[in-house]
Amino acid sequence: MYAPNEGLAIPYVSPMLAESLGGLPPLLLVAGDSERLRDEAIYLAHRSAEPAKYKGPSYNAGKFEKSPFQAPTNTTLEVYEEMPHVFQMFDHPCTTKSYERTVEFINKVTNAINEPLPPSSFSCINTKGEFGPLKEYHKEIQKWENIGIVPSIKRELKIKTTRRSPSELLVYTVLLFAVFAYLSPINL
């Protein structure tokens, strides 16, 4: 939508496809559980918090070892149940909770002179504002293997076709004309 397919593998366009997401400043990733980009946010969180485990696209093989960004990034992931994309724009208790959590995160990051930040965390927050672990279906994302591989639009279509003889085609054509003639009003 914002870039042609050829550009999607460029890390500046899709940061998730960089050779490593380690060594970044602390990240707060917020996603609605019902949004289309939820899986990408979850995968991005895992790639940044554990860069040695999630090394990225197969075409970047070998680049991680040379990358200066191998240290884990302190990452906070919050997935809000039943919330759509940009849910913070709507009047809902989860919106308030999300803003409160964002302010807390910013305060921790900017006021932590020599205080260590809490470890990376991945949470699912229900509509009552209660925190819990990610759901099992969220964990399936960790198994992604074809990250950054643009799917081919060329595929073999296997359509079973039956060849009709000319006489059969003539019969079908006459039948179609007969049906149309029967259904159309007669102008006399």
Automatic annotation (TrEMBL):
Segments traversing the membrane: 169-186
UniProt superkingdom? Eukaryota
Q: Which InterPro entries match?
A: AB_hydrolase_fold, GDXG_lipolytic_enzyme
Keyword Signal on entry: no
GO MF annotations in UniProt: hydrolase activity
Say if the entry is tagged with keyword Transmembrane: yes
Question: Coiled-coil region(s) at which residues?
Answer: none
Q: Which UniProt keywords apply?
A: Hydrolase, Membrane, Transmembrane, Transmembrane helix
Matches recorded under PANTHER family:
AB HYDROLASE SUPERFAMILY PROTEIN C4A8.06C
Q: What is this protein called?
A: Uncharacterized protein
Organism whose genome encodes this protein: Rhizophagus irregularis
